[in-house]
Amino acid sequence: MKIGFALPQYHKQALGIARTAEFARKVEEAGAASLWVSDRNLAAVNPKIGYGGQGNTIPAELNLAADPFVLLGIAASATERVLLGTHVLIAPLYPPVQLARSLTSIDLISEGRLLPGFGIGWSPEEYEAAGTDFTRRGARMNELLDALDAIWTTDPAQYSGELISVPLHHSLLKPAQRPRPPFYLGALSERALRRVAERGDGWLPLVVVPSYVDIDGLVSQQATIDRLAREADRDPSAIDAILRVNIDADTTTQQVADVIKAVHERTGIEHFMVDSMYAVPSVDGSIAHAAELIALVEKG
Prior knowledge:
It is an enzyme of class 1 (oxidoreductase). It comes from Streptomyces xiangluensis. By secondary structure, this protein is an alpha/beta fold. The protein has a single domain, classed as TIM Barrel. 39% of the residues lie in helices and 17% in strands. The protein is built from nine helices and 13 strands. The strands form two sheets. Strands 1, 2, 3, 4, 5, 6, 9, 10, 11, 12 and 13 form an eleven-stranded parallel sheet that branches. A two-stranded antiparallel sheet has the order 7-8. Helix 2 links the parallel strand 2 and strand 3. It is globular, with a radius of gyration of 18 Å. The termini are close together.
């Protein structure tokens, strides 16, 4: 199994972002397979929709959020082996040219280790702040994937859609990965799972230990992706999966290791991204937690 870890991006860990390079090096040395960021452009004081699309509150831990592109670029320059992922960027918030430029730069700095993961988000206020229509975010995601594909694989490049337009321009700087970095997509609804099946190179599911571990649900979602992929004349085995593992406060490292092993046994998922921001407030604690978890998982 491959175990990766979130960079110090949120909550009290974000106050230690000056140690991002140190964190990345030490966690790589401990045996991590990957390092990750996610995306929170803002946490509304009075949200219309709450965290994950539920209720009307957002965890206080998300009030502090460092820039994902900066952190991933630092990690890219500080490491040699680990993959560098986004689980997930709220991609429709970004203009495609700027998003492609940032991700291309990270892929080149890391010599082809980027795993870009995208989602459509759940916060209307984030879309309001970006001047983008929240109600059309799924359609915008579809066009964004087409625009990124064009920018990354053609020169000159252009794209014209209903919601996104990119004029013909010189597009000489390409990612290290060819023909382009893979598209990993977050998904829960059947519409989003269909996007994974039809467009994704990978799927980004989620569990929270111990409060939300629905292995039966993961199995069912994977079966839906497989069915929809076959309907789209795609090979389901070509669609990878990387599971995000969030950790509740007061959760033992052994509990996390046990869930990872159980999910692997039931689903076959081999790559896990662990985010300790809720459970481990310090950078030093997060480094130690990563090393301990890798050792527990490797014990079998």
